[in-house]
Write a structure and sequence with these properties.
Strand order of the largest sheet: 1-2
Number of domains: 1
Shape: rod-shaped
Length: 73
């Protein structure tokens, strides 16, 4: 539980610091006559909600705090 909690804490902080990221894909487009082809680079932007970062941070903190509690037998 503790490693998962630490991962969620890190991901939550990263999600709060980075609002979006963009990556590019390359496609080959064929011209209207079919003789010419060229590569087209298209951007794709993914937005990260701050609420997702807050939820990940809270769940991570709960998991880390639950692993510290002593268990009674």
């Amino acid at each position: 539980m503790r490693p998962l909690g630490l991962i969620l804490i890190v991901l939550g902080v990263v999600a709060l610091l980075v609002r979006s990221f963009t990556f590019f894909t390359t496609q080959t487009e064929v011209g209207p006559l079919g003789y010419f082809a060229w590569d087209v680079t298209r951007p794709h932007t993914i937005f990260i909600s701050p609420a997702a970062g807050i939820v990940a941070l809270i769940v991570g903190l709960v998991l880390v705090s639950m692993s510290r509690r002593p268990t009674s037998i």
